[in-house]
Amino acid sequence: MFRRSEQDKRPQVQIFVDGVAVAARQGDTVSAALLASGQDARRSTAVSGAPRLPYCMMGVCFDCLVTIDGVGNRQGCLVPVADGMQIEVQKGKREIGR
Amino acid sequence: MTVAPKREDYDVVVIGAGPAGLAAAATSAEAGLSTLLLDENVGPGGQVFRAISSTPVTERNLLGADYWGGADLVKSLGASGAEVIHRATVWSLDRNLDLAVSIGGASAFVKAKRVILATGALERPFPIPGWTLPGVMTAGAAQTMLKSSALVPDGRTVIAGQGPLLWLLAAQILRLGGRIDRILDTTERGNYFAALPHAFAFLTSPYFAKGLSMMREVKAKVQVVSGVTELAASGDGQLASVSYVGGGKRETIPADLLLLHQGVVPNVNLAMSAGVEHRWDDLQLCWSPVLDASGNSSVPGIAIAGDGAGIGGANAAVVRGRIAARAAVESLAPAVAARLPAMATLRADLAKAERGRVFLDTLFRPAPQFRIPSGDTIVCRCEEVTAKDVLDSVAIGATGPNQLKAYRRTGMGPCQGRLCGLTVTELMAQARAKTPQEIGYYRLRAPVKPITLAELASVPKSEADVKAVVRG
Q1: I need a labelling partner for B158 at 20 to 30 A (CA). Which of B172, B296, B314, B470 fits?
Q2: B418 and A4 in contact by Cβ < 8 A?
Q3: Contacts of A25 in chain B (CB under 8 A)
Q4: Does CATH place domain B9-122+265-340 in 2.40.50.320?
């Protein structure tokens, strides 16, 4: 859906998506890194389980909700990636205690 | 890294580090007022100057000269001495000018003598069939990724809608080597005639020449279908195709990515939750705050600058930020105000920056069928409520957006109405033969962005606070 332009000379950062190593770039948000990864990053909604991907990328729509380092319901479009970050595609509503 | 505000009290707190907020905070701090700028994003710039300090797209002609103007604002802010905190989400503002802000999972509280809201705009909802499918995004989303991560559309890409941003985005994608298969222009044919009386002001505005050359640049490379009157996305769990009617002809094309855009509207949530009076704007088709010529709202001490004050664009936002900050300086440090540019000069700058706006608003007024959906089209993305659900609720007695919450939970999901509020107001107004002003909007309350109960529970509290709510 998206690819990186040759303009991008930023250093790589390794993150893990559902346990799989993914190369992101320093300064990517979690959502941007997921969309650039080519992996299936579709979350499913809390109400009907419908698949969704980020819609607005600016903190408004909450369709980028994701579990980051064990904390659910984070807005992936507002969180920058960090080396070793553990990301889980969130299926359904946030679980109690995480 | 988590940094809490250094003080508990400030002369001026500015919320939002886009063009208006950057200009307002710099003006206020330069004048010697203690100034705190809070912003939700990783770095300064807001949407229009997104990632201005960090973009990997450093070849300057790719994003355009207007974008790089944002760097000067950031430089002025840096030199001004204002305290700046990013990744800070303001979740409460009240009439006493008490603010609550969430930073790194913990809340801090500050009090201001003046608050300047520069929370900007968001893209107007574009509720067509299938707009919740993965692969359907806003044009602004694609532009955010382009500016902050140099990402460009790769698969079969369709851009649909209308307005200046759509053409700017298309030009930027093409310059970075991205792919666009087709542009579907939804501008209503009748709008061209309606906008004609306002054309002179636009022809003499700086937007005209730039807009024209950008449209030429794009049209030379991409097939553009104009006069699109129907639009739908479909696919099974993922966008597969886009159907449209253009020039009376129906067509379906395969697509991996559909980027939607039909203008921007003020982001009203924080202002409304603070009790700022808003009115329905019949030209811009959105809620705009009631403001005086200095940007002061109906709540004493709260001013609004930038697109949150009514859509005016980046240049107008900068001037509005300076005007609101000058008004704050006049009231808190009148002796210093004389050193700032005169209010009359700033207002003349604003009039210049707003030149041609009525033309754009009239020409790019979105068509009713793209604002007011029907049938199974989702209105509220969070709670997955359709247009039919809303109309059924009206039929059994829901009178306005707030009653509708009890019937359908519209606007009660995490986005708090940001992506359904305008649609619900217009849909209910049409169904009940009322004006949007009569139908009204969701009553918004703090927290204006979701925070966890754990964060609320761990805010500092006195013994008296506890006694006030504990029995026995």
Answers
A1: B314
A2: no
A3: 56, 149
A4: no
